[in-house]
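Title: [Solved] Fe-S oxidoreductase 3D structure

Original question kept below for reference.
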Amino acid sequence: MKVFLINEPFVKNFNRSQRWAARTRGRVLRAPDWLAYGTAVLEQEGITAKLFDFPAENLQKDDLRLLVKNGQPDFIVLDSTTPSIFSDIECARICKEVSDAKILMVGPHCSALPEETLLLSNGAVDVICIGEYDLTIRDVIANYPILDDIAGICYLKDGTPQRTEKRQLIQDLDSLPFPAWHQLDLMKYFDGLKLHPYIDIFSGRGCPHTCIFCLWPEVMHGHQVRLRLPEKVVDEIEHDIEICPQVVKGGEFFFEDDTFTINKANAMAICEEILRRKLKITFSVNARTDTGDKELFQILKKAGCRELLVGFESGSDDMLATMNKRESVANARHFMSLAHKTGLDVHGCFVLGLPGETRDSINTTLDFACNLGLHSVQFSAAVPFPGTQFFQICKDNGLLQATSWDQWLTDGEQSAVIEYPGLSSQFIQESTDRGLKKFYFRPSYILKFLLSARSKTDLYCKLRGAKNFLSYLVSQKNS
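Solution (posted by the thread starter after getting help):
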């Protein structure tokens, strides 16, 4: 049996594996980590599984047609996102035209809207694997065409979408094999704000918080926090170093957990295990402002942590409450004070345009972000993705301007698909760019940014990211 798992093509520089699928302003290219997990699970079962990342290889739909025609797999697993869903279904149709493969679709869009996606595909997609799909694809492939007893899927039965019982979240994450990074060239992935190369790693899944705009906990991995054993996490780090030794020669690991610092004891145990094994690595982690802790920050720094990536989201307590962030501006200031004292850099993420936003609150957030002492920032216009509370709020209140999923992008760029009375989508979009210019175009910042390069490859990535960002700004000015 042969299975192809494909991160399929879409518009140039589209990054489907990030939390908000779009073309980032810095043209980030992230590895398809969840498909890599799925590939490894199939390999563990003795199934011939091949992982193909079309964006990383700069391949197009004609290449997809040729690959499938020549390879003739029995099953194909395709990813899905909201902006790309029509293109994703087209890719499924291409695969059907040149092979007898059964098509499984995974990812956030089809997980949020499985019945609609099946009907849209008009026979091009055979099975939707809903949510956390590592084991679901294995079960479908092992039992096809007998599907009734497989939890967590949606398929057509007598022409009607049939959804099976909900699949329980994977409790023992350490039972999963390490992602199939050996099938990818990890040097091809790029993020101008990370060291190069960087490798994603997960010490846990799930987030207990219910921010109204957050897609992955709501649709893919749930709100139950499940943690891996620290020893297994560090085993994976050592395994990854064998696959990509360049990661310890100027690169870094990135802990993509929703919040690496959510469980202090586990985070500290991972750091202690890194130190016990005398690993000389650099890493960065996702964190929340209410997890600021001196003892934790100190051991993070000692173990090799470079940067904390934090969803500050807003400089307004009212907006933080409205988005159900369960944090405060005071939390943010305390967090930054501890990070500075420990010598940890902080990357701040901010979202503009959630319900309740005003021009004043946006300007407050921009000023707040530029005066926190951050190492880098990211401003995003709020995008309502199906499956989130934010999407439902926008739908119920007639705020959605888009009438078709392909309008979630315009010429490949993230679209402002909502509009509020007194706050236009244009102002929200312009504010994100204004905030970025205000932060990054300070002469002192530009000099510090370039001087902080740790190697020639790191300097190259910083310059490449800056060039991509400037290209984005020029394209917006001319549009």
